[in-house]
Amino acid sequence: MYQRPELPELVFTDPDGNAIPYGHRWGVDGPPERTYSRTRHPERFAPLIEVADALIDHLERTYDVDVRYTEGLPEDAPDTVRSAEQGQVRIARAATLLPRHDGCAPLVIAETTFPSIVVAMGAAGEARSPACGCDACDESLEDSAELLERIVLSVVEGRFQERYSWTEGIEITIGGGTAATYSREPRHAADKERVDALKQSQRERHGERWLPWPPRRDDAEGAWEAEAEPLRLWTRQEREAAIEAALERIRRRLRSA
Hints:
The chain has five helices and eight strands; from the N terminus they run αβαββββαβββαα. The strands form two sheets. It has a five-stranded antiparallel β-sheet with strand order 1-2-3-4-5. A three-stranded antiparallel β-sheet has the order 6-7-8. The chain has helices spanning 48-62, 79-82, 141-156, 192-204, 236-256; strands spanning 65-71, 91-99, 107-112, 116-121, 125-129, 160-165, 169-174, 181-185. The protein is elongated and about 100 Å long.
């Protein structure tokens, strides 16, 4: 079972020496204009790296998945990870997790020098923790850790789904129930590489949903079996073919009698 590492109680102060209550800084009037696109203490997010490492270790021990670690940006990194490198921010290291069943969504979990964690999911899904990181958004370390865990565990539990259509563009759902989040990116605004990757993925999966990751098998020979297809009514042609096959078996028995 996954267990979050203990988060340190970090205290940061403003120019007057007062402790900054991250997550509860702004009232009904909202943040000041000067706080947008500015992050005074990005180091408060550094413990997210330990949370990401704990998640990766949990997935590697629990699920039937291959894990590849790289320093810096992986050569085959998806565009959703490459786009995290902007200005002085770079990918410091990454873990690529490939389930051993084609029906399961792959994951890339990467650490940036911000510091932050970037997650690429499936063919076109992307998320970051913290989601923004600027002072105006006022994200706390604990909320960012919860966000990262929800995203990663939603993928492995089959609660991350993505879909592309000509009319709706890219649609992505993360989580389930009342905690689910839904986003839509119109076709004309979506990145072409992401669209192409998702269309290719849908063709390979024949439009099927992403499945939950299979549990790890201790025996090397053991292979995970996909869930049985749901029962459905036969078509008229299938019924006639089954009847004809049964009649042919009866004829062969009578001829050999």
